[in-house]
Design goal:
The complex is a heterodimer of chains A (about 280) and B (about 750).
Chain A lengths: L46 E5 L5 H10 L7 E5 L4 E3 L8 E3 L6 H18 L2 H9 L18 H6 L14 E4 L2 H13 L7 E7 L5 H28 L16 H15 L5 E7 L1
Parallel strand pairs in A: 1-2, 1-5, 5-6
Antiparallel strand pairs in A: 3-4, 6-7
Chain B lengths: L4 H20 L4 H12 L5 H16 L5 H19 L6 H24 L4 H17 L5 H17 L30 H16 L9 H17 L1 H12 L13 H24 L6 H26 L9 H11 L17 H5 L5 H4 L8 H14 L2 H24 L6 H6 L4 H6 L3 H11 L4 H6 L13 H20 L7 H5 L15 H13 L9 H4 L7 H15 L5 H29 L9 H12 L8 H10 L5 H9 L7 H14 L4 H14 L4 H11 L1 H18 L8 H4 L5 H9 L1
The chains are: A alpha/beta (about 280), B mainly alpha (about 750).
Subunit structure (chain A): Component of the cleavage and polyadenylation factor (CPF) complex.
Organism (chain A): Aspergillus pseudoustus
Family (chain A): Belongs to the SSU72 phosphatase family.
């Protein structure tokens, strides 16, 4: 619902509706206009990126999607039990709780612990990037789909515009383990919203370089998906769905396997997976 | 009134503002929904209907909006939803939203009808919506079809029997047939159940279709887990439908990348559903089958890409570095087959059983001729280099031979205990022997010529009884056992005094040696030393001298050394031990006394307490220093009996000027708190007083209190001595007498 209804063609006159209900006090809130683009191509799929700790891969993708030339609504999560960041050795990771520790806190803590180490392994840079994207890592399993996320908009999280309703159209995970966890968790949540969601996996190795490549690939996938969805919206426009023919009549959902297949040919090193689940 | 596009834009902006309001506070939902309904109805422009239907779907799905309020609101919107659904225009987005909204509305309205049977109109609306959706399901476009699947799942969920979580609080139970009263005026249980059963079949039919569409299949798969989990009655039906579904089978046509994506997604989703079920219910009767199916799916996935790659032909060069290694290993995995000659007919020896070579020279070679160290040099590198697969082959060959021989013998009438065959592990010996078969087969058969017939028949093998141990050997073995227990005491694996750590005092209910900590082992040892052999060793002792150390003495000796190793830390062990000794001595004496009445003979009892307490004292007294006073007094106070020799040993401490105080204080303690030993100690102290000048100040003080007359006498002697030496100094005891508060001592001091 966050997307804009199309404004095309003033066309045939429907019967005049009664006057809208008196807008409540907050009706003219500035964000009322946020979902209004005035153009049919302003239609945007809402995305959700997921990795293990909601730090590297999902956050890189979050940043990419939310700062693209035509930005997407996006939220992001981790599926791990805790947020784990590399420490001085492989057996001493820095561990934080999801949902309650901000990127800034982590940044400050690691900065005071050993600035040189965490500067050199890129952790501080990553946290610095993340804290400019949103407040802190969120756990997928704790997400209640459909629960309004208005506060994220007011906090200025990147990509929050359009996700006020707490729902997404597409989930993209960055590791098969996470895809399994997401699909499994959605089943456990018993799909109370009765709302379909496409769940993709794009397998990205967990390092800064791969995350950059993966973020680019995810943006590519998102753009392809969105372009198709926009086409569908257009086809369903004033002429009406019934007037389209052939390819135009095929819906966005139907085309997803094809989109993924052609995307995969361009990105053969990021093995992908997809299913359609329920929020 | 015609409406311009601009007006619609404005309206939608206002509607969005209203939506933002309810997102911020769900309490506004009833007000906003009721206000919005007239704007988004069937007569409204398609843009408004799209917005409106999506808003309705969002409203009735929102977790922020309480279910009870949703239920109230649900009946208000039914008419609007129905009229939009029944519009001939059929906008895809509107329909998608309507079906989604209907899926959320259905359980709400159903529940409302359960509680309000009089509201026939609402039931009529929701029934009409349901029937319309189900009728048009197949003609809808894919996005709407998907939502129809979910709608049907909701209907099945509602129209089957669910679990009653709490019968007393019906509002907490989920909506299902289980909460519908049997005599409900509108809801007829049998017809609702029949409808849901038919719907379930329709949902599952997607798995039987020839060309399964990944969208519909995945959408179906992902909503089945909830049904299986919460609806026992239909779960098996769903699982068996899943178990018969193999996505790869449905993709025969040219395998395009799209088909590959589709098949993979269906396989992975099926797997995810099965894993979800198994995780939730690991004891499900079908778990084994589900596991099997998952493996089958993975198998088919492996085969699938293989097929495509085969069509493209083999890659000209290895695609990764591992390839060459893999091929090399493949070669290595087919070793030359070793030829196994058949066994000769008739009875065979072990040597023949294990001989796999046909070379007569080799098989007749007696390995015993070679010295053992040389053999070791040969065999160890050989074993290290022996090829695993060859070894397996050889072992299998010998096993086969063994089994055939066994079968032959079973055919022959021979009384063989079958159970013992089971216990006997035939693989064990061949494994060890096979590679070195020619080395050892000979000696084995040669060593036991007497038992040859038995061995050859391969019947149950009975180990010969070991020769009886000589007394020395037995004693040696006993000492070994004792040494092992002591080794354990020293090791850290035995927990240290766990009882103390717990701070829990068991008091009299304590059972010695029941805690299995270090103390328990000590208890065990002391009793082993004192009690176990009593009566057994008393017999031979009088006749034999001390030439042969007995096992109990060996334990005592070891205990003695164990305590001396760290007498400060192990003084409690010593006390425990000496108490056991003393107790045992008493028991022995009592026993001897009772025996004596019969034959009226002098029966001597070997007493162990006295010699060992002295030995222990002698052992640690030299190492005792003045700071050990607490340990020493504890020892003296807790040993069962203080004898004259013990007192003498204590007195001997006074030889050392540094330990005079230790000596006197120990005596003082014994005198004060051990009345049976008081006289002994006083006597010893007197002697100390007389013998060692350094002790006089302190010893005199004790004696003044307990033997005032004697001290006067002694002091008189002292004075005369002092006078005789014409020393102008005061008598040594004068230094302390002044400060003493005891009236008797004070009096004595004055009298001087």
């Amino acid at each position: 619902m966050a997307y804009d209804p199309r404004l095309a063609g003033a066309g045939t006159a429907a019967q005049a509706p009664p006057t809208p209900p008196p807008p409540p006090e907050a009706a003219q809130a500035p964000n009322a206009s946020t979902s209004l683009g005035g153009q049919s191509d302003s239609y945007k799929l809402r995305f959700c990126t997921v990795c293990a700790s909601n730090q590297n891969r999902s956050m890189e993708a979050h940043l990419r999607l939310s700062t693209a030339s035509s930005p997407f609504p996006v939220i992001s999560f981790g599926t791990g039990s805790l947020v784990r960041l590399p420490g001085p050795s492989i057996t001493q990771p820095n561990v934080y709780n999801f949902n309650s520790t901000s990127y800034s806190q982590m940044y400050d803590e690691l900065f005071s612990k050993d600035e040189r180490l965490y500067r050199n392994n890129g952790i501080l840079n990553m946290l610095d990037r993340n804290r400019n994207v949103k407040w802190g890592p969120e756990r997928f399993q704790d997400w209640v789909p459909g629960l309004p996320r208005i506060d994220h908009v007011s906090k200025g999280d990147k990509g929050a515009l359009g996700t006020e309703g707490g729902v997404v159209d597409v989930i993209i995970t960055c590791e098969e383990r996470c895809w399994d966890a997401v699909v499994d968790d959605l089943m456990n949540k018993a799909s109370p919203l009765n709302r379909p969601v496409h769940v993709f996996n794009v397998d990205i190795r967990d390092n800064h370089e791969e995350a950059l490549v993966g973020g680019k690939a995810i943006l590519d996938l998102a753009t392809r998906l969105n372009d198709t969805a926009v086409l569908e919206q257009k086809a369903l426009g004033a002429e009406g769905w019934a007037n389209g023919t052939g390819e135009a009549r095929r819906s966005f959902d139907e085309k997803v396997p094809e989109i993924l297949a052609s995307w995969q040919e361009k990105w053969p090193n990021l093995p992908a997976l997809w299913t359609i689940a329920w929020l | 009134m015609a409406q311009s596009g601009d007006q619609v834009v404005d309206q939608i902006a206002q509607l969005n503002a209203a939506r933002n309001l309810v997102l911020g506070d769900a309490a506004f939902y009833p007000q906003i929904v009721n206000g919005v309904l007239p704007i988004i109805g069937a007569q409204a422009r398609v843009e408004l209907r799209r917005w409106g239907t999506e808003f309705l779907a969002e409203t009735f799905a929102s977790p922020a909006f309480a279910t009870a309020q949703k239920e109230q609101l649900a009946t208000n919107v039914l008419h609007t939803v129905r009229s939009i659904l029944e519009l001939p225009e059929g906008d895809q987005l509107v329909l998608k939203n309507i079906v989604q909204a209907a899926a959320s509305l259905y359980p709400l309205v159903f529940r409302h009808i359960i509680n309000h049977p009089e509201d026939k109109q609402s039931w009529e609306h929701i029934e009409a919506i349901k029937q319309d959706i189900l009728r048009r399901w197949d003609s809808f476009s894919y996005p709407v079809k998907m939502c129809c699947i979910k709608f049907a799942q909701r209907v099945v969920l509602v129209q089957t029997h669910g679990l009653i979580a709490d019968p007393r609080r019906p509002e907490h139970n989920e909506t299902s047939l289980a909460i519908v009263p049997r005599n409900h005026s509108i809801l007829s249980l049998p017809s609702l159940e029949a409808e849901s059963s038919g719907l379930l079949d329709r949902i599952l039919s997607v798995f039987q279709e020839d060309t399964s569409d990944p969208i519909l299949v995945n959408a179906t798969l992902n909503c089945l887990a909830t049904l299986i989990r919460s609806r026992q009655s239909i779960s098996n039906k769903i699982i068996s439908a899943l178990l018969n579904f193999v996505p790869a089978r449905h993709a025969r046509s040219p395998v395009t990348p799209t088909v590959r994506v589709s098949v993979k997604s269906m396989e992975r989703t099926t797997r995810a559903v099965l894993i979800n079920i198994m995780k939730r219910n690991p004891n499900h009767p079908l778990v084994a089958k589900m596991q099997q199916h998952i493996e089958r799916l993975m198998q088919s996935r492996i085969e699938h890409p293989d097929e495509t790659s085969r069509k493209r032909g083999l890659p000209t060069e290895p695609t990764d570095g591992l390839d060459a290694a893999k091929r090399a290993r493949l070669d290595a995995e087919t070793p030359p087959v070793i030829k196994v000659p058949p066994l000769p007919a008739g009875r065979i020896s072990y040597a023949q059983l294990f001989t796999l070579t046909e070379d007569t020279g080799l098989s007749s070679f007696d390995v015993k001729q070679l010295p053992a160290d040389l053999l070791v040099k040969i065999v160890v590198p050989l074993l290290a280099r022996v090829d695993q697969s060859s070894l397996n082959q050889v072992v299998d060959a010998v096993r086969m031979r063994y089994q055939t021989v066994q079968k032959q013998q079973l055919g022959q009438p021979q009384p063989v205990a079958a159970e013992e065959d089971d216990d006997y592990e035939p693989e064990y010996q061949p494994m060890d022997v096979a590679s070195a078969a020619p080395d050892q087969a000979g000696p084995v058969s040669a060593e036991l010529p007497g038992e040859q017939p038995d061995l050859v028949s391969l019947g149950p093998f009975v180990l010969p009884r070991p020769p009886p141990l000589s007394e020395d050997q037995a004693a040696e073995a006993g000492r070994g056992a004792v040494a092992r227990v002591f080794g354990m005491l020293g090791s850290t694996t035995v927990s240290q005094n766990s009882v103390k750590g717990q701070g829990q005092q068991l008091g009299f209910s304590r059972l010695a040696g029941s805690t299995f900590d270090r103390d328990a082992w000590v208890t065990l040892l002391t009793r082993l030393a004192t009690r176990a052999p009593s009566g057994l060793e008393t017999g031979p002792k009088p006749e034999g001298d001390r030439r042969k150390p007995r096992i109990s003495d060996a334990i005592r000796e070891t205990l003695y050394r164990y305590i001396l190793e760290d007498f400060r830390g192990r003084v409690n062990v010593g006390i425990m031990w000496l108490n056991e000794e003393w107790y045992n001595d008493r028991i022995q004496m009592k026993l001897a006394a009772s025996n004596r009445t019969e034959d009226n003979e002098e029966v001597s009892v070997a007493l162990n307490y006295d010699p060992w307490v002295l030995r222990l004292l002698d052992g640690f007294l030299p190492y005792l220093d003045s700071r050990d006073i607490k340990i020493f007094i504890r020892f003296l106070s807790e040993i069962p009996e203080v004898t004259i020799p013990i007192a003498k040993r204590i007195a001997s401490l006074a030889k050392d000027p540094e330990r005079v105080n230790l000596c006197v204080q120990s005596f003082m303690y014994l005198i004060m708190f051990r009345p049976p030993a008081r006289d002994i100690c006083l006597d010893a102290l007197e002697e100390v007083y007389q013998t060692y000048e350094e002790s006089r100040p302190s010893a005199g003080k004790v004696l003044t209190r307990w033997r005032p007359q004697r001290i006067e006498q002694l002091q008189a002697e002292q004075t005369t001595l002092v006078n005789r030496t014409v020393e102008p100094q005061q008598p040594p005891n004068a230094t302390f007498t002044n400060g003493v508060r005891d009236p008797r001592t004070a009096h004595l001091a004055n009298s001087q």
